[in-house]
Amino acid sequence: MNDGENYWNAFRSHKRTATDGPTLSPWMVTALQATKLLLFTLCNITLTLGSVFSKLIVLIMSTNIIPHSHLLDKFSRKCSRANVQRTSTTTASIYIGLLMIQCLPDIFNMIQAVLQIVKQRGGAGNLVGSLVILECLRAIGLSVLTFHVFPQLDLGRCIVLGCCFPLVAVFQRSLIAMMNAARASKKFRSRLGRCFLAMPHIFMCIALFSSCYLWTLFDSGKQFTAHLALPIGIICTSIGFWESWIDTTHANTSYDELYRLKYAVRKMNNTTKAVVAFCRICCVLGVMIAAVFMNGHTKLHGVHFFKAVFYFGMKRGHTLLLLLAVSIIILHLIMRGISRFLAALDLHPISFIHPLSIAPIIAYSFVRLTCQSPTCWISRKLAKYGLRWICDQWFQESSGFTSPDFYICMIWLIVGSYRGWKLVKQRYFESTEEIISSMPPISNGLCIEQSLVVFQHSLNRQEKEFLIEDDDLINNSDENDELRIRNDDVDKTSTVYACATMWHETETEMRQVLRSILKLDVDHATRMSSKKSDLRYRLEGHIFFDDAWENKIEDGIEKREPNEYFVMFFDLLNEMTGERLNENGKLETRILVNTPYGGRLVVKLPSGTLLFVHLKDKTLIRHKKRWSQVMYMYYLLGHRIMDCPLSIEDRQQMADNTFILAIDGDSKFEPDALLRLLHLMNAKSDIGCACGRIHPIGSGIMVWYQKFEYAIAHWFQKAAEHVFGCVLCAPGCFSLFRASALMDDNIMHKYTKTASEPRHYVQYDQGEDRWLSTLLLKQGYRIEYAAASDAETYAPEGFEEFFNQRRRWTPSSIANTIDLLMDYKRAAENNESISYAYIAYQFLVIFFSMLGPAIIFTMLVFAQVAAFGIDGTNVMLWNGIPIGLFVLLCFTTESNIQLIYAKFMSIVYAFIMLAVLVATSSQIVLETVVAPTSLFIVTMVLIFFFAACLHPKEFTNIIYGIVFFLMIPSTYVFLTLYSLINLNVITWGTREAVAKATGQKTKKAPLERWIDKIIDFLKEGVRILSGKEKRENAEKQAKFENKLSKIEMALRNVEKGGEEIDKILSDFKEKREIETQTLAENMGIEKEETRKEEMKKANKYVWMNSDVLKICERGKLKSAEKTFWNELIETYLKPIKSTAAEMKQVAEGLASLRNQIAFTILLINALLALAIFLIQKHKNVLSIKYVPYKGFKWTKMNEMTGQFEQTKEPLKIDPLGMGIVVFLLAILFVQTLGMLLHRLNTMIGAFQEVRNLYEYGVGQPVANTTSEDERILTNAREMINARTMSISHAGDGYTRHRADEAETGNVLYKLQKARLAKRMQRSALSN
């Protein structure tokens, strides 16, 4: 460190500016395989039929642009009774509908691209001019055909004419064939054979080219006027259909940009996207305006177009036409989504039934069948829209089959289908190849089958270098920059550090986490030794024991030794690993090391993984979980990566491929859970953390409650956060963090900050996991949720333990959410996954959570009124008094009294909730299901049941919903109030501890103090009279002499102490004589303390010779690491020592903060409860009258007779309560939608763990499924896991994991650049 800086301390904070088979049971494998087959079938059918329907609707609308009043074909004669009313407004709506189908997707793309350009503030990318020209030609060609050529034809001819679009592709293939045949280097026989092979291509080219002039030759009646428009439309569309004639042979040619866009080797940048969309819109609009004049619409004016749009009526034909166009647009979106979905599963539509090859044949066959066997229902349906079925004119007479153009049209149909099949024909690749899939980035509504093709391509090494999103990332980088990364050989082997924090776990909990680590040990060794497995990872375990030391007194001498919890852990570790002693009575796989923070046990697990057990001494280093996390972050990422003697490129690679698996001391998980998180992290580079599904385990009613609570929280809340934004909290019991994300600015370094304000104590120390997640989100990293990664952890089983846990979690969660909402502009600017809509959603969630006590309170009141028929005012008082008393107890009494009262009231209200259940059921029966309150309750129950059905492995959690329902008052009222009013209780748990920390003495009762004084007086008298004091001094001196001898012998037995131990022994020999003489003269208190301080150095090694640990080998910490720990402790982890005055000031600040927040929220809840109650009290005046439907009846009690009678009176609804219900239902629907999308993503991941479709079979083993489908899994996650199509793999292209490092993602580059800037600044100041 020549510059005087510590590399391990390079992290910064600054003020921000703008191998094994899947763990699936056989029935699940069978179900997934069957579901996969069913989805494949349904998706293929939907794509094919949807394309046929879209093509027919577009052609029907197009052929009706010009009215056909005199039709003589068989269909028209039979179905002539259908009354078709055509007006100029109807014609205008046809034009507008076709314009919408083609241009509306372009409008959305243009708006999105412009917003992205504005957000990026430059650097939107270079314009790809060739793409703009080709897409404009395609738009012109399709518009000319749709608006001018097709109206002069019938449906049959329009369909076969659409088959001529591959004209340029066929012409290109013919030229290639002729050039191959004309090569002079080939023999004559070979050239002759190639000539024969070229003839079919030439024939197909001539046949398709005839479509440009065919009807001009055969038009004897001069009815066909599009003589020039026809070849323009065909040729422009064929050239614009560039995906059909661009292939892999165009790489590194003048068409290289098009090749890269087609196969997603690069993404289409925002500049090109915006310009292409704008030009296409202008082209289509211009052609449409020209077609209006060319088609002879003399009576069609601008006012008709205005009426078609703004004169809305469901019974008007022009409105129905526009709605039909909107439905076609939605159908196109669904079909493109289905194509992406199938590509994600590596189940592309079967080539010969792909819409591009089969849709024209099906459409033509349907038209022919309809015209030959007229079914007039089609005519009647179209008449409602003002449309006619323009039947194939070939079949007007019996001699229709001899029409001059019939056979050539059949050739067009066959050639077009054949070329479509060639384009979508599936290619097969080796499993070792890196395959990318892509779709056309632009949707063409007038010919949607062109936009449903999925292209696959295998990348070679050279192409991988160009996997970038934008050219500017290269153009803006300095080639001569010494810090620029040039290494392209990225090590794909990940490094995973499994880091667990422990304190006083039980043996069962320790066994659980050790079993999980041992399973990881086996899986890691298997994968590292296997050459077939692509997902390989290095593994290292770290366990940080908090407060692992205790003082033990032997022969009057105090020494520090590991406590009983570590001894229990050590015995358990030996039992589970089955290690045996060697010939010298030692365990070679166990090494003890002294460290500046206490001690360390290094263990080699059976399969070779190293497990480091760090024993923290709270007298040497800060204890508790957050500081353990700071320890392993700085040790693993600072010392291991930053301090290593490697180049910045290699260190950046280490950071990119390093992950920290954060677990608790009682976590239980399978290796597959970690692998799923690794897959997710490798699929998307912007993920800073991925967390799994946490399952609470234990026994008792409180655990049952938490099972349902955790279930609905993960099913709805976490899934919605994942889909619509980011997960807000990564649980510390099972989350995988990316090292480079933690090392970024304002994350790791800021995590070391101590609280300086009262709110910091709540935000930083009460929920460290939530705060770390907030730092990641505000820095721009995503946190994602993988539902298939299951982990278990022990949940609080007692009422008091549960309340105290939530007392810490609730304020921290609220504080971090509010922190994110208050800084929403910066969060939305830095993090692309956080939008203003997501911020609004989180605001509603936190707002209604604050109103929870009032909402539940009023629900209890009115439910009791309905159940018992008691006056509402009395019920209000009866419920308000116990809750008010609890609030008073929370402000004035100790926590144990609060919890006793809350526990008692929870039992009482559990019985009351039974009455609520009865009252709610009665209300549903009386007011029927369509009443707003009844509808809300029934909807909520059905949604919960539906969610349970979507999670079959967790379906039994729905049973615990009964316990959850009974405990609603306890958790939503008493727990909320308890957490809120005890907000000032932070690191300490009770008010007795607060008094002790602030230097105050806990007051005892007068009787208790009097008894203590009497006992102390008697003890002192007996001690003086018996002469015990003199004997104690003599015994103390003898014991001290004995202890010194024992310590000297113990130190000589230490094998690896070195010169340091020799020095200690020599010091003791000298000090022994001095201390012996001093003790003989004076046994005062000051001499006792001096001896104890001098004994600490010797005790540093004595713990290794304890009865339990003496079987371990001895080791010594390297000097570099020892220096690191000393500097780290001195900088960040030195134990905090506060004076009584400082602690009192903190306590007063927290109490003031508590008072402000508690009184505000209590006042708001009280006002809301009172408002709802008063509105209900005056329901006859202030309510909204609501009739669900005409003729609605409901049952009401007659106050005169006391009997239930049916009435037609409107329901009376409380407007304030109804507003709350509507908002809650809206939040629930949003979360349900998020759950459905997230389940779809999870299902895709599950499909990759079973065999491919062609291996479908129930009883076959699936051991090798993961290795066979890892390529598919990565592709699937990249395509489907994206929130929008524009950032997905198949939407606009492929994004390399490290594509944007040159701009923002290269953490090591930024840190090194900052260090160089500081060095230059110091040099300038010194000069």
From TrEMBL:
It is found in: Cell membrane. Coiled coil: none annotated. InterPro entries: Chitin_synth, Chs-1/2_IV_N, Nucleotide-diphossugar_trans. It is an enzyme of class 2 (transferase). One of its GO terms (cellular component) is plasma membrane. This is chitin synthase. Pfam families: Chitin_synth_2, ChitinSynthase_IV_N. GO terms for molecular function: chitin synthase activity. Belongs to the chitin synthase family. Class IV subfamily. The keyword Coiled coil applies. It comes from Caenorhabditis angaria. Residues 25-420 form the Chitin synthase chs-1/2 N-terminal putative transporter domain. Keywords: Cell membrane, Coiled coil, Glycoprotein, Glycosyltransferase, Membrane, Transferase, Transmembrane, Transmembrane helix. It comes from the Eukaryota.
